[in-house]
Amino acid sequence: MKFFxxxxxxxxxxxAYELGVLDGVTTNPSLMAKEGIxxxxxxxxxxxxxxxxxxxxxxxxxxxxxxxxxxxEGKALAKIDDKIVVKVPMIREGIKAIKYFSSEGIRTNCxxxxxxxxxxxxxxxGASYLSPFIGRLDDISxxxxxxxxxxxxxxxxxxxxxxxxxxxxxxxMHLVKCAELGADVVTCPLKVITGxxxxxxxxxxxxxxxxxxxxxxx
Length: 218
Ligand code: E4P
What we know:
The protein is of the alpha/beta class. It has one domain: TIM Barrel, CATH 3.20.20. It is 55% helix and 17% strand. The chain has 11 helices and 8 strands. It has an 8-stranded parallel barrel, surrounded by 7 helices. Helix 6 (116-125) runs parallel beside helix 8 and helix 8 runs parallel beside helix 9. The structure holds erythose-4-phosphate.
């Protein structure tokens, strides 16, 4: 299972990368705005800064919603660095753009996926990654994890090569459940990755070991 971090914050990306378990970075226009990054030039420079931190792939999202605009933006994003994966929304024009990018050898991440039908379309178009948003489904009382299970099953039925990238994770159990269900990738905030470290018995056990060692070595 691959771990991607879902942020545009350079310090968080560095921290996750230094942990040695990071396989990629996903961003979106809201995450870029949260960091105060605006304007095509600054946005592209920020993507380059992310690519320079990690030896891993970096999803960069197009803003255009028409085919020609997506192709123009996607090509420009792909030129920033070999690590860039072009993130394209799950809309009619997006599917056409994914098909085009796939024929040009440009990797894509189909984003804003909320149904198995959308997942089938994206795989047929040749998306490299598919991002079902499980937290946002949970938010409206649909089980996001059920969708992951359904998509993993469908992709296995047909040997689709599109990787299931579970997105919009809110907590560590989302991540663990995605692992059980066979998601290829998870993308989540830093606190979800570092949250995996925590167990009170680990803390208690380590405190005991150190205390015993100190006593014996007085
Ligand atoms: C995925 O690529 C998205 O950037 C992200 O996971 C959205 O998560 P949110 O629902 O927490 O905004």
